[in-house]
Write the structure tokens for this entry.
Amino acid sequence: MISIDRFDHLGIRVAQRQRALDFYALLGFQVVLEVDFDAVIILKNDQGLELNLIVNGLDTLEAKNILMDVPQKYTGITHVAFGVKDIKACIAHLKAHEIPITQGPVSFGDGHVSIFFRDPDKNTLEIRSRLESAEEQSIEGLSFYDPKA
């Protein structure tokens, strides 16, 4: 058995360096290191969460995310979920920066509320928060999660 003791980082393939850096900066990630021997930029946020931007993707802005936007269900990592304390503040922040929420806010019936949105390369991101049922009532537009949406 392998004893994994922590999550280390997430690699996200992107097409345009500056466009991706600007977007992830809005989520609180800053450049820690730009590797000179590979197309990798290491980002971290104030809590130490690490993302590695792999800057060698095809620029397919008009294309679809093959894992999320086509009827065939290919294997792969479909999204990453980030936990936050204040989902209402996150919703307001995304709206203020004109980042469309593609699904949500949604409740899963277990105290978690999520919103889904895309980065500029159509990678799906989720922001999730645990709320008490009374708090859920204060979230505008909250609905129960529909996996077909």
